[in-house]
Write a structure and sequence with these properties.
The complex is a heterodimer of chains A (768) and B (547).
Chain A: H1 3-24, H2 46-64, H3 70-86, H4 90-103, H5 108-120, H6 124-137, H7 142-154, H8 158-168, H9 172-189, H10 192-205, H11 210-222, H12 226-234, H13 246-254, H14 256-268, H15 272-285, H16 290-303, H17 306-319, H18 324-338, H19 342-354, H20 359-362, H21 364-371, H22 375-388, H23 393-405, H24 409-422, H25 427-439, H26 443-455, H27 460-476, H28 480-493, H29 498-510, H30 514-527, H31 532-544, H32 548-561, H33 565-581, H34 585-598, H35 603-615, H36 619-632, H37 637-649, H38 653-666, H39 671-683, H40 692-705, H41 709-721, H42 725-742, H43 746-767
Helix pairs in contact in A: 2-3, 2-14, 3-4, 3-5, 4-5, 5-6, 6-7, 7-8, 7-9, 8-9, 9-10, 10-11, 11-12, 13-14, 14-15, 15-16, 16-17, 16-18, 17-18, 18-19, 18-21, 21-22, 22-23, 23-24, 23-25, 24-25, 25-26, 25-27, 26-27, 27-28, 28-29, 29-30, 30-31, 31-32, 31-33, 32-33, 33-34, 34-35, 35-36, 36-37, ...
Chain B: H1 6-20, E1 31-33, H2 35-38, E2 62-65, E3 74-77, E4 94-98, E5 104-106, H3 108-111, E6 118-125, E7 134-140, E8 144-148, E9 154-156, H4 158-161, E10 169-175, E11 184-189, E12 201-202, E13 209-210, E14 223-227, E15 233-235, E16 249-255, E17 264-269, E18 275-279, E19 285-287, H5 289-292, E20 308-311, E21 320-323, E22 332-336, E23 342-344, E24 360-366, E25 375-380, E26 396-397, E27 399-403, E28 409-411, E29 416-417, E30 421-422, E31 424-430, E32 439-444, E33 450-454, E34 460-467, E35 479-484, E36 487-492, E37 507-511, E38 517-523, E39 529-533, E40 540-544
Parallel strand pairs in B: 1-29, 34-40
Antiparallel strand pairs in B: 1-33, 2-3, 3-4, 4-5, 6-7, 7-8, 8-9, 10-11, 11-14, 12-13, 14-15, 16-17, 17-18, 18-19, 20-21, 21-22, 22-23, 24-25, 25-27, 26-30, 27-28, 31-32, 32-33, 34-37, 35-36, 35-38, 38-39
Classes of the chains: A mainly alpha (768), B mainly beta (547).
Chain lengths: 768, 547
Amino acid sequence: MTGAASRGEWRSLLGAALMALALLSSPARGQPPVPIPRPDLSSYGPSVRLVIESGLARIDELLAEESPDTRTLADAYGELGRAALFYSQTGLADACLRNAAELRPDDFRWHYYLAVHFQNERQLEEARAALERASTLQPGDGATLLRLGQVLELSGDPEAAAAFFERVEEAEPWAAAARYGLGRSAVRRGDTQAAIEHYEAALELQPNAAEVRQQLGLAYRDAGDLEAARAHLTARSGSALSFADPLVEALQVEFSNSSVYQGMKALAAGRFTEAARHYAEAVESDSANPVYRQALGGLLSTVGDLDGAVEQLEEALRLDPEKAMLRVALALALAQRDGFTDAVGEHFRIAREQAPGLKDARLGPAEAYARIGRFEEAEAELEAAIEEDPEDMDARLLWAEILLQQDRGEEAVRQLEIVVERWPKRPQVLLSYGRALSSVEEDAAASEVLQRVLEGDANPGQQSLAHLELGQTSDRLGNPERALFHYRRSARLRPESKPARIALALALADSGRHSEAAEVYSEILAVDPEDAEVRRERALSLAESGRLDEAIGELESAFEASADRQARDLLGLALATLQQRNGRSTEVEAVLRRLVEESPELPDAQFNLALVLGRRGELEGARRHLERALELDPKDAQAYLALSQLLAGTERFAEMRSTLERAHRELPDNLEIMRALTRLLVASPDRSVRDLPSALPLALKLCERQPAAGHSALVAAALAGSARFDEAVVWQTRAVAEAQEVGLDERQLSLMRQDLARYRQEAGSGDQ
Amino acid sequence: MSLSDPVRWLLLLLAVALPAGGDTCPEAPLLNDVARESGLEFVHDRGATGGKYNPETMGSGIAWLDYDGDGWLDAYVVQSGPFPPDGSAAAANRLFRNLGDGRFQDVTQSSGSGDRGYGQGVVAADVDGDGFTDLYLANYGADRLLKNRGDGTFEDVTEDSGLGTGGWSSSAALADVDRDGDLDLYLARYLEHIPEEEPFCANPDTGERWYCDPSVFEGESDRFFRNLGDGTFEDATESAGFAAADGKGMGVVMLDLDGDRWTDIYVTNDMTWNFLFINRGDGTFDDLSLLSGAAVSRDGMPEAGMGVAVGDIDGDRDADLAVTNYDVQTNTLYLNDGASRFEDASAGSGFGVPSFNMVGFGLALADFDRDGDLDAFVANGHTVETPARANVHYAQPDQLLLGDGAGHFTLATCLIQPEGPTVSRGIATADYDSDGDTDVAVQRSGARLALMRNEAEAGDWLGLVLHGANGNTDAIGARVELVTDRGIQVLWALAGDSYQSSSDRRLLFGLAEGVVVERVEVFWPSGRRQSALVAPVGRYLHLTEPL
C-alpha cells in the first residue's frame, strides 16, 4: 500500500474498527469501553480517597446492572474522570473521560475535559481532536476556542492558531490570553511591532503574567529597544497567564474534596479566611462527611470562631461518634468557649476510654486548661500524670511548652533535659529544648541543640523552624550573616511558610539588602497576591533600593485593583508615603482624599491629609482632619502635638493649652506632650495662657522622668516665674552643667547662662 | 479478515495506533548496546546509602579521547563511589583503551588515571599544548587535572597548575577565549552542599524521604580559569566578569554564538536561569543571559537546565542550543538568529513535547542516521526513585529524535536497542569504531554503562580531524562548514558539552544519498580561514591550520 490510497484504506479500516469496538463494548453488555485502572490510593488523604473510591464504586455498581442507563454511566465515568484529572491520576482520567465522551458524544463537557487532559499531557493531536469535537457542540465557547488556539500554536501552526485567538480577543475573560497568542503568531510572521502591541495589551490586562513579560521583552529586543527589553526581562514575575475556564474552575469548586485540598493549601499559606471558605464549601457539598466538618471545625477553632468550631465538631462527632481524636478536638474547642465544664471533662474521659493510648486524649485536659490560661490547673494535671508515670515524656514535653508560654524558661529547660535524655534525637523535643535554651539566652547551647535538629531526621517543617530559631539566636549573638543564612534555609525548606519568608525579608532589609528583600516579598506575593501588608513592604524595599518609581507604580496598580477596604487603606497610605518621598504632592493629596472619603474612620489618613493641608497653608482644613483623627483615636499623641503646633502657628494659644491639657489627661505618661504643655505654661507668647504654678509640678516630673538640661531649665523658669529665684538659680546651674556635659552648642549655652545670670541677679536683689 | 476475530482486532487496533504515537521506526534499530561484548564494562556506583544525599543522584559523565595517539578513541568513565566520599578504590575512575577491533581493555592502573574523588564530570583536551590529550575532572570535592605524559600514563598536576578547586563541580569546558593559543577553563558548579547538613525532604504524598531539589541549597559559584600558557592557570572569575552570576551550574559549552569569532559561554543552571556570556574580545564577558532569550523558557520561567548541546538545527548556519530539563518543563530548543538572540522553539518543533514526562540529562546533537541533518539523543532518568506525578518513573527510556534540518524533530526511540527504561546521566558521542557514524556512550546512575554502536548503513560520511597550529592543537572552537550541492552543513569543535561529558573532537558529517561535497571551509579559532577541496568522502580528512 502506498500514498493516499493506503491512508484512505487505513481510515476506512479504523472507522470499521472503532464502530465494531463500540458495539462489542456496549454498556448494555456490562463491559466498559476502556477498562479503568485502579490506582493505588494508599498514599492519598482521606478526602481524595473518598472521592475516587466512591466514584469507582459507583461505576462498578452501574456496570453490575443488567442494562445500565448510558447517560448515567457516562456521567459516572465523567465525574470520576474529572476528579482524576484534578488529582493528576492521568491513567484514570484518560480512561474515564474517554469512556464518558464515547458514551455521550453529544455532551460537551466530556470532550472538553478530555481535551484538557490531553493538553496537560502535551498530547497535542489528541487535544486538538477533542477540542474540535467540543467546539462543534458549543461553537462559540471562548475557553474551547482559546485552547484550540493554544494547541495549534504549540503544534507549530501559528496562522491557524491566530484565527482562533482573534475570535475571542474582544471578550474580556479570554482577552489577555488571546492577545498573548496573537503576539506569538505575529512573531512567527516576523511582525515584531504587532507582537509588541498584542503583548502590551495582554500585559495591561494581566500585569504579573511571566510569559507575557518574557515575550514582550524579547520582542522589544528584536525591535532594537534594549532598554525596554531589559526592563521586562529582568522584572521577574511569577504568575501564569490565566483566562476564564469555567469547567476547569468547576473542578475546584464542585469537588468537595478539592475544596478541602484548596483549603489545605490556603491554610499552609496562612490564608485562614480563604481556607475556611474552601472547607465550608466542602461541608456544604457533603454535609454528612465528618472529615470535612472536622477540618472546618479545627480551622474555626484556630481563628477564634469557637461557636462555629463547636457546631461543626459536634456534628462531626454525631456522624462519627467513635473517633476519639474528634472528641478531643471538640473538648478543646468547648473548653476555650465555655471554660472547663463537666461536658469537657466528660468528652476527655470518653476519648481516653475509646483510645487509651491516644496522647491527645490523655493530656487533653492539661492542654485545655493551658489554652484558657488556667496554667496552674494545667500544670497540676501534668504533675499528676508524671507522678503516675515518671516516664511520660509527652507530659513533660507539654509541660515545658506551657512553661515556655509563661516565660518560665529555666523550668522548661529542666523538664526538657529529662525528655532529651530519654529522646535525644526526636526533632520535636530538640526543637522545644532549643527554644527553651534560647528563651533563657543560652544562645550557644541553643544553637548546638538546634543544629542537632538539622542533623537528625526532622521533617522540613521542623527543620524550617529550627533554622528560624537559629536565625534569631544568631541575630542575638551578633552574627547577622549567619542569621540570614538560617532564615534563607528556613524559607527554602518551607516555601509556603510566610513567617519564614517574612523573617528572611526583614533580615535582608535590616542588613540593607533591600533588592533581595523585595524579591522575597515577591515570592510571598506569588503565593498570596492579596497580602497587602507584604505588598507594601515590597514597595518600601523597592523604594529603599532606589527603585522608587517602580515601587510607586506597583502600589498604584495594587491600590486601584484592590477591592478590599483594609487592603486599600494599607496600600493607599504606603503609596502616599512614597509619593511624598518622590515630591509628588498633588498625587499625595489625591490619594489621601480618596482614603478619607472611602475610609473616614482611618486616623492615619486623616492625620496625613492634615499635614499635607497644613503644609499648603490650608490650616482650617488641617485642623478639621486632626480633630477628626482625635475623635477616632483620643490617645493619638502625634495628632495632639500636630494640632497644638497648628494652633500655635495661628496664635491660638488658649486653644493650644486646652488641647495639650486634654492630651495630658489622655496620655499622662507621654513626655513629649508633658514637655510641650510645660513650655506653653512657662513661656506662652500669650501671657494670659501662662500658668507657672501649674507648670512647676509638670517640669519637676519631667526632670524626674528624664533628667536633661532643657527640663532643668524649665523647672528653673517655672520657679523664677513664681519669684523663687534662689531655687531657680540652683536648677539653672544644674541645667547649664547638664548642657555642658552633653555638649550643647555654644549659642544655647550662652542663652542658658544669660538666664542664670538674670536669676542670680533677681535672687541677689531679693537678698538686698 | 473477520471483525469478530479478537486477535485480528487487537492487531488492527495496534496497527492504527502506531502512527499516532509519533515514534517513527525504520526496519532495524540504529543504535545497539554493545558494551558487554566490547569489554567496556563499567558499573556506576552512586554511593546511595539511604541518606538521600543530593550528589548521589547527579552523576556522572564520560569522555572520549585518543589518549595513546593510536587513532582509536578510548573511553574515560567517571566513577562516583561511596558517599560521603572516602577515596577508596571503589571510587576510582576507569580508562578503557580501544584496541581497534571493537574491543576495549581496562588500562586504569597502568595509565595512572584512576582518580578516586567523588566524580561528576570530565573534559578531555590538550590543555598544555604538547599534543597529548589531558583530562580535567570535575568532582564533588577537589577537582583534578591529569596531564597526559604521552607515554600512555597520566600525572596529577593539579597543584602545580593552580586548578583543583573544591566544592561541587558538575561540568567543565575548555576553549581559547582570549585567542592566545591555549585553552581556558570554565567550570559549572552546582550546589553548596555539606553532607552533615543534608536537609530532610520527602515525597509530599507518601512522606518517604527523597532527594531534595536544588532550591533547598545555595548555588555554588562557577569559576573561570585563564590558561597562562606555561602549564599554570589563574583564577579570572572576577576579572572576566563571571563573579556576579548566581546559578546552580550543570552543563556548559564554549563556542562563538554571536558570529564575531570570539568564544562565548553558555551554562545551564538547575532552577535558576541559564547564563549566556558574550565575549567582548578584551578578556571580559557581558552577561546577556536574559536579553538573549536563552535564559528561561518561553513562559519566562527558569527551568531545571541539565545538559546542553549545540548545532545548526534549523539550517541557517548558526549555533542553536538544546537543553534538557525536568519533567513537565519539557526540553528546550533555543534557535539562534545568528546574533545570539534566541527563540524558544520547543513547542511545535517536536523537540519539547516527547520529554514531557522525562527528566533529561545527557544530550547530543549529531547526524545519527546520516541524512545530512542533526538528530538528538537524549538520556533520561529521574532524580528521585518515587516521582510524585503519575506516568513519571525513576527509570525512563532514552530517546532518539530525528531532525529534518529545518528545526523539526520526530521521535524514534525504537531505533535504540535495547529499548527500555534506565536512569541515564552523562553521554558522549564518538565514532569509536571509525566506521563513519556516530556512536554514543551512556552513563547510568548506579548501573551498567551502555555503548550504543551505530549501525547506520544509509548515506555517506566525511570526517575531519583538525590540527591547530599553536597550543590549541585540537583546534577547539573551530567552526567548519561543509559545502555541498544541497547546501551547507556546519559543525563546531568543542571540548565539553552534553552533561558532565566530553565527546569525540573529530567532526563527523553525514551525507544523504547522492549528495556531492564541494569543499570545506574551516574557520580556525585563531581567526584564520581555510578552504579545502574534498574528494573522496567516506574517510577522515586531516586538516592542519596554515601558518
